[in-house]
């Protein structure tokens, strides 16, 4: 028998709440209560407001480049709710703001960060979040390492989730992180927000794989594709993965199929490379629309509540902007002071003199020259 | 006091660190059962277990990145990169992540990691096994770089590195691994990172070097006439480095020769030379001289001794500087 099958696999897709806001009750069992869905909907809506205002701040020169989250909010809120705040670690990329807030990061931190101030990444005590990661795919290894430490220390009921995009799965470090996590069987959840575009390169050009989820098969990792605009599916997938992780079942992979409704960042113009028709089709799948439809169908949401939420979101975000813009420019000493736990002497001199040239630091030399020239 | 080689001293120190601190974890390629390709970690896995002396997948970036994660979570990770030439794939993680984490979070997230790397030539190794990349890492803010040349210094600097709250690249000159033994105190002691060592006091000329060339410099000095008095400084730490000790010495001697294995251009000698010129300008009797590897790729081993700054070339550099 020259050929025999030594490995077989399949990739499943999970959707619980469809585009029309219709729920699969059987699959939804033991997932989210209506009260939780209301909470998640509110978080998504507040984040959407922040997103719109952040865009305007950039356009009016009050903030630097900013990557909008628009369209992907269900991923952030559904996953964050399944994690344990103050215990688990979140290792983010940069398009899951709502997850950071739900995990304890004050909202203005994100604006402070994009306003070009490191203090936006100075996580408050007890907030287990690594800083936003702008280079693609490099942070997943840190998630693996943090989860590994959790395993070595036998910390109970603690896991790590890391977020990244479809483009990141082309990076070598993605595969390194997956291989290490799998080999060491660490409690880590790899959450891929497959938003179809890595700046201007579509997913089909990014990889020849039919799904992103299948990449995890190579690492023998439980893997699943979910509808990333469906809070129920996202929550369930992450909840199951977390349960497996804390029970010693090792890492899991989730490919969440979603869509970047905005440009890559405020410095990008997606009209240069993608059709409006495609964007329009995805507008109908917007997680906010679908979640609202569901809540209305359950009789727990109406126009009045919507208006109240929108007003509340405006108020919250206005306050957040005020806080962020009210933070004074740091002193230049700040970029020296955190270089090392204890600054080397020469770095202290650079900080204290704000110069790298040496003559002024050697008055003896200036003095001698002045004497020689008789100009003292 | 037991006598140890450099390999023995590092092994002994890692053993002590593992014994005294449950947060210490060693990870790397072949470091467990096999004890490392140079046997630096020989026997440590058997003693401390597979969870603390870990054979990893063959992925330098993976080793560095997951070691960063371990350190973020509060472990004192000690990754080994098998050879200097294999640091390349781990460069991004080391430089762009380990080196930046503290400052970009203004101290909220830190990386107490010690990266062990065998370094340098002179042992007839294959290509990419004999490089001296210390200047590259010294150039990148946020990390520290050390290179001990003796067993005693190796222990003190390794303990200092492991206990340092910031990432340290700890280069081990492989040419010295088994070249000699010396007495190494058995207790826990640290040598401050950033402090050079005056190996030999002298009045006529200062030689600044680090790593294996310390011994080539000593050999060169043996060949000089008895009335020539050389001050030999082993820098030990490349960043931060001991500007004061070097400059005080040059202000005394008025002449300076810098010796290192790495190529001349933008080697760390360029930095030392520049600082000496800035700080000792009025005391210099001759231009600062550099005796280093050439600006070529490190040749395969048939010609490695022609490439490296060996004693005759160092002696010539010293004589010329004295004659200026």
How is the topology of this model organized?
The complex is a heterodimer of chains A (376) and B (324).
Chain A: E1 13-14, H1 25-28, H2 34-59, H3 73-82, E2 89-91, H4 97-102, H5 108-114, H6 140-152, E3 160-165, H7 172-184, E4 188-194, E5 197-198, E6 201-202, H8 203-206, E7 223-227, H9 231-246, E8 252-257, H10 276-283, H11 287-297, H12 303-326, H13 333-337, H14 345-353, H15 363-373
Parallel strand pairs in A: 1-7, 2-3, 3-4, 4-8, 7-8
Antiparallel strand pairs in A: 5-6
Chain B: E1 3-4, H1 6-20, E2 24-28, H2 44-48, E3 53-55, H3 60-72, E4 76-80, H4 91-98, H5 101-104, E5 114-119, H6 134-138, E6 144-146, H7 151-163, E7 168-173, E8 182-183, E9 197-200, E10 205-209, H8 213-222, E11 230-234, E12 237-239, H9 243-253, E13 256-263, H10 268-279, E14 289-293, H11 304-307, H12 311-323
Parallel strand pairs in B: 2-3, 2-4, 5-7, 6-7, 10-11, 10-13, 13-14
Antiparallel strand pairs in B: 1-8, 6-12, 9-11
Helix pairs in contact in B: 1-7, 3-4, 8-12, 9-10
Q: How would you describe this protein?
A:
The complex is a heterodimer of chains A (376) and B (324). Chain A folds into two domains: 13-326, 3-Layer(aba) Sandwich (Rossmann fold), CATH 3.40.50.970; 333-373, no CATH class. Helices cover 44% and strands 9% of the residues of chain A. Chain A is built from 15 helices and eight strands. Chain A has helices spanning 25-28, 34-59, 73-82, 97-102, 108-114, 140-152, 172-184, 203-206, 231-246, 276-283, 287-297, 303-326, 333-337, 345-353, 363-373; strands at 13-14, 89-91, 160-165, 188-194, 197-198, 201-202, 223-227, 252-257. Chain A has a six-stranded parallel beta sheet with strand order 1-7-8-4-3-2. In chain A, α3 packs parallel to α9 (231-246). Chain A is globular, with a radius of gyration of 24 Å. Chain A starts with 12 loop residues before the first strand and ends with a helix. The model of chain A has no long low-confidence stretch (mean pLDDT 95). With 324 residues, chain B is of the alpha/beta class. Chain B folds into two domains: 3-183, Thiamin diphosphate (ThDP)-binding fold, Pyr/PP domains (Rossmann fold, 3-Layer(aba) Sandwich), CATH 3.40.50.970; 197-323, Rossmann fold. Chain B is 35% helix and 19% strand. Chain B has twelve helices and 14 strands. The longest helix of chain B has 15 residues, at 6-20. Chain B is globular and about 60 Å long. Chains A and B meet through α6, α7 and α14 of A and α3, α4 and α5 of B.
């Amino acid at each position: 028998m020259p050929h025999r099958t030594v490995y077989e696999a399949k990739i499943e897709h999970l959707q619980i709440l469809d585009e029309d806001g219709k729920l699969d009750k059987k699959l939804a069992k033991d997932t989210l209560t209506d009260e939780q869905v209301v909470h998640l909907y509110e978080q998504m809506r507040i984040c959407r407001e922040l997103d719109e205002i952040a865009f305007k701040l950039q356009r009016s020169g009050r903030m630097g480049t900013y990557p909008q989250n628009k369209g992907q909010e269900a991923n952030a809120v559904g996953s964050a709710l399944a994690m344990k705040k103050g215990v688990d670690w979140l290792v983010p990329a940069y398009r899951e703001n709502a997850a950071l807030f739900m995990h304890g990061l004050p909202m203005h931190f994100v604006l402070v960060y994009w306003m070009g101030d490191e203090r936006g990444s100075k996580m408050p005590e007890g907030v287990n979040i690594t800083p936003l990661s702008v280079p693609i795919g490099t942070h997943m290894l840190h998630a693996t390492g943090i989860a590994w430490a959790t395993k070595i220390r036998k910390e109970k009921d603690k896991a790590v989730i890391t977020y990244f995009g479809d483009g990141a799965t082309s990076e070598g470090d993605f595969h390194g992180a997956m291989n290490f996590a799998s080999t060491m069987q660490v409690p880590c959840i790899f959450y891929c927000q497959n938003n179809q575009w890595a700046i201007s390169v579509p997913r089909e050009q990014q990889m020849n794989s039919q799904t992103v989820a299948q990449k995890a098969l190579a690492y023998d990792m439980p893997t699943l594709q979910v509808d990333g605009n469906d809070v129920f599916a996202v929550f369930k997938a992450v909840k199951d993965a977390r349960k497996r992780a804390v029970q010693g079942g090792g890492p899991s992979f989730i490919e969440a199929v979603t869509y970047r409704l905005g440009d890559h960042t405020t410095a990008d113009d997606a009209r240069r490379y993608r059709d409006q028709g495609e964007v329009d089709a995805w507008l109908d799948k917007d997680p906010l629309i679908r979640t609202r439809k569901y809540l209305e169908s359950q009789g727990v949401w109406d126009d009045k509540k919507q208006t109240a939420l929108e007003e509340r979101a405006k108020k919250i975000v206005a306050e957040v902007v005020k806080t962020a813009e009210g933070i004074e420019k740091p002193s230049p000493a700040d970029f020296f002071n955190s270089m090392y736990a204890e600054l080397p002497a020469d770095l202290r001199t650079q900080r204290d003199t704000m110069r790298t040239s040496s003559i002024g630091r050697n008055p003896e030399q200036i003095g001698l020259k002045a004497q020689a020239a008789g100009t003292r | 006091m037991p006598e140890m080689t450099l390999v023995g001293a590092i092994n002994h120190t890692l053993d002590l660190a593992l014994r005294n601190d449950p947060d210490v974890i060693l990870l790397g390629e072949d470091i467990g059962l096999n004890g490392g390709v140079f046997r630096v970690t020989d026997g440590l896995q058997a003693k401390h277990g597979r969870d603390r002396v870990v054979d990893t997948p063959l992925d330098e970036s993976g080793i560095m990145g997951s070691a960063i994660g371990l350190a973020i979570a509060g472990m004192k990770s000690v990754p080994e990169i098998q050879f200097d030439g294999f640091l390349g794939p781990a460069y991004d993680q080391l430089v762009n992540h380990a080196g930046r984490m503290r400052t970009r979070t203004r101290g909220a997230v830190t990386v107490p990691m010690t990266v062990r790397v065998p370094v340098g030539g002179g042992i007839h190794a294959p290509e990419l096994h004999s490089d001296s990349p210390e200047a590259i890492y010294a150039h990148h803010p946020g990390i520290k770089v050390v290179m001990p040349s003796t067993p005693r210094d190796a222990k003190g600097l390794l303990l200092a590195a492991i206990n340092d709250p910031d990432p340290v690249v700890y280069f081990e000159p492989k040419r010295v691994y088994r070249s000699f033994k010396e007495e190494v105190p058995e207790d826990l002691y640290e040598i401050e990172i950033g402090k050079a060592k005056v190996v030999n006091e002298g009045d006529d000329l200062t030689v600044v070097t680090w790593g294996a060339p310390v011994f080539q410099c000593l050999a060169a000095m043996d060949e000089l006439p008895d009335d020539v008095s050389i001050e030999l400084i082993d820098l030990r730490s490349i960043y931060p480095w001991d500007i004061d000790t070097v400059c005080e010495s040059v202000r005394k001697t008025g002449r300076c020769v810098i010796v290192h294995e790495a190529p001349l251009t933008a080697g760390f000698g360029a930095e030392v030379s520049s600082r000496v010129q800035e700080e000792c300008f009025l005391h210099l009797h001759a231009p600062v001289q550099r005796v280093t590897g050439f600006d070529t790729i490190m040749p395969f081993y048939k010609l490695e001794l022609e490439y490296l700054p060996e004693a005759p070339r160092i002696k010539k550099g010293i004589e010329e500087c004295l004659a200026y």
